[in-house]
Specification:
The complex is a heterodimer. By secondary structure, chain A is mainly α. Helices cover 72% and strands 0% of the residues of chain A. In chain A, helix 4 runs antiparallel to helix 7 and helix 5 packs across helix 9. Chain B has a two-stranded antiparallel ribbon. Chain B starts with a helix and ends in an 8-residue tail after the last helix. Classes of the chains: A mainly alpha, B mainly alpha. Chains A and B meet through helix 4, helix 5, helix 9, helix 10 and helix 11 of A and helix 1, helix 6, helix 7, helix 8 and helix 10 of B.
């Protein structure tokens, strides 16, 4: 536990690289990020351009369409590249919201304890057991389908685990001798939190955050698949939604429903591998060693 | 306070919280809920007033809440405009199918997951262990609905041979009840397999970690010192002690399971609560959606409650006031 708190960010990346699966995760994530950022420039097919006639619909790969066309004759490969951006964006933004809520609840709860702790942790435990997907579906259906609402819904429902983990780390930090000493020297609570607590829970928060991104990307994909995605944006989940409802499976259009799923699998796996490896570095007892 | 009473109190307060939360969520719908519920813009003022009264929406928020709770206690979950019948009747038709799907897949997932996990953990550090872990991480990263789509394609279009939609063959005539169950069983295979592929990973990872931790305990060294075979040590001593942490973790699994079931029911048109949720989202049938969420949430809370009690029975140290 003690060396976990002294881990320096650059040292963390080095250790991560040394772990086989952590390295695999980094490579996957770099590859996906690269194709999401650069891809649409290299491959300038308009992902929203519909086909000219019926013959352009659900076309197998070929004729300049690397991955064929969808049920409206749009190019699947350029949708895949644009979709990567939306999936990553939603995943990361929702994680930012979730981490801010989870980490601050966890730190305040663990540091101040008492009635505040009881109340905050009851709320946390409540959200920990309430089934997340049904709640996301209900909220998505009520508040409407646009990108910021999807981000908010996913972010506001993904923090309980973070809060629990951060709280227990804060609890153990609080027992360290230098905290009462700092207090007796007249340090204010906020100062102790900022200087003595936050830097030491940071590595744990980062490791957890990476794992949360994986969950948020899966949540976005699932919500979009259910039909609650932003109708104006192409994401991997919404591609799978349209391939499902347009009957691409029955017509054997594998080029339409395979690539987005593989994309989701790779990104989620990339974040999971990096997150697992980071957890192993920051908290060796907690993580499954791979 | 004894553990059981304390835990029951938590359960009840959670249920009250979820009922209240559900009420607030569906009563802050932007716009007039009646127009949304009736899904019509062409209502006369009289009709709107009548519907407001019928739905108990004509009082203050608090009196609306009281009406809502009173109706719930009478088993009144509202009226569906798409189905033109009370929501409770629709729920009664569908809930059993979901229970069937969840029970079958949970049994398979838990048993197979724990066996594979313990096996991998007992070979800690060996090749078979690390490849199991990698396979589990990949499986856990799969979107459940996509696995379902792949299996539909494989067994419905490509190879064929297994039913990919519904719970029974349409218009089938059965000679006896056995044939009907056989038909349902065939329809269960792919949905169960889909949930299993993704969810087994969860139990593999948890039980593997748990076994590795148990194996490093002192009493394991003693067992080895007594000259017991590795098999006896792992399956006789390690296995049993590794189960408790798995049970704690399964609390988190219950919520994930429900999410997976919704996706599977959508992909395979399995006529359960998940498909009902999906259809009510598409048709914006809010009374049905509201009921689906409430029932699912309460079921998960009760399942957690049962798991906690079981855990407490197996390990009475748990739940001692911290």
């Amino acid at each position: 536990m003690s060396d976990s708190t002294t881990t320096h960010p650059t040292g963390m990346v080095k250790q991560l690289w040394r772990l086989g699966l952590g390295r695999a995760g980094i490579i996957i994530l770099i590859a996906v990020a690269f194709s999401a950022i650069v891809g649409p420039f290299i491959f300038p097919f308009d992902p929203a351009a519909v086909g000219a006639d019926a013959s352009s619909i659900l076309q197998a790969p070929g004729n300049g369409h690397i991955l064929g066309t969808d049920e409206l004759g749009r190019d699947v490969f350029s949708q895949l590249l644009t979709g990567a951006r939306i999936s990553l964006f939603v995943g990361v933004m929702a994680t930012v919201i979730s981490t801010i809520i989870g980490a601050s609840l966890g730190i305040f709860s663990g540091y101040f304890q008492g009635p505040l702790d009881t109340v905050l942790m009851s709320v946390t435990d409540f959200f920990l057991v309430v089934p997340a997907l049904p709640l996301m579906i209900a909220m998505g259906a009520i508040f409407g389908q646009n990108l910021s609402i999807i981000i908010l819904v996913i972010g506001f429902l993904s923090w309980p685990r973070t809060a629990r983990i951060v709280r227990s780390q804060t609890l153990s930090l609080r027992e360290r001798q230098y905290i009462p000493r700092a207090k007796s020297l007249g340090a204010k609570n906020m100062r102790i939190l900022r200087i003595n607590i936050l830097p030491h829970v940071m590595p744990l928060i980062i490791a957890n955050t990476i794992l949360v991104v994986a969950g948020c990307i899966l949540s976005e994909a699932t919500l979009s698949f259910i039909g609650l995605g932003d109708p104006d944006r192409i994401s991997w989940g919404s591609m799978l939604h349209f391939s499902f409802v347009s009957g691409a499976i029955g017509r054997g259009a594998w080029w339409y429903f395979l690539p987005p799923g593989i994309g989701i699998l790779f990104v989620v796996l990339g974040f999971t591998l990096v997150g697992q490896a980071l957890e192993q570095i920051t908290n060796p007892r907690l993580a499954a060693d791979v | 306070m004894p553990y059981f009473a304390r835990r029951t109190l938590t359960l009840l307060s959670s249920i009250v919280a979820i009922v209240t939360f559900n009420f607030l969520l569906f009563h802050i719908i932007p716009g007039d809920p009646i127009r949304l519920i009736a899904r019509s813009q062409h209502l006369t003022a009289d009709e709107i007033a009548k519907l407001h009264h019928e739905y108990g929406l004509d009082g203050s928020l608090f009196s609306q809440y009281l009406t809502y709770v009173k109706n719930l206690l009478h088993g009144d979950l509202g009226f569906s405009f798409t189905y033109q019948e009370p929501v409770i009747d629709i729920v009664k038709r569908t809930v059993g199918n979901t229970v069937l799907l969840l029970t079958t897949s949970t049994l398979i997932v838990v048993i197979a997951g724990i066996l594979i996990g313990v096996f991998a953990g007992s070979r800690h550090g060996k090749r078979s262990d690390s490849s199991t872990v990698i396979a589990a991480l990949v499986a856990w990263s799969l979107p459940t609905f996509w696995v379902g789509m792949l299996l539909v394609f494989t067994f419905g279009v490509w190879i064929g041979g297994l039913p990919i939609s519904g719970i029974t063959t349409p218009h089938a005539i059965y000679d006896n009840i056995f044939q009907k169950w056989q038909d349902i069983g065939m329809h269960l295979i792919l949905p169960t397999l889909t949930l299993a592929i993704v969810d087994i990973a969860f139990f593999v990872i948890i039980s593997r970690t748990s076994l590795i931790e148990v194996m490093s305990e002192d009493y394991m060294l003693t067992a080895r010192g007594k000259g017991l075979t590795r098999r006896t040590i792992v399956w006789g001593h390690g296995f049993r002690n590794a189960l408790l942490p798995v049970l704690t973790a399964s609390v988190l699994y219950i919520s994930a399971l429900v999410g997976g079931a919704i996706q599977v029911e959508v992909v395979y048109s399995w006529p359960g609560m998940g498909l009902l949720t999906y259809n009510s989202v598409l048709s914006r049938d809010y009374p049905v959606l509201e009921a689906c969420f409430l029932i699912t949430a309460v079921a998960v809370l009760v399942a957690n409650f049962a798991t906690d009690l079981l855990y407490h029975k197996l390990d009475p140290r748990v739940g001692v006031q911290r």
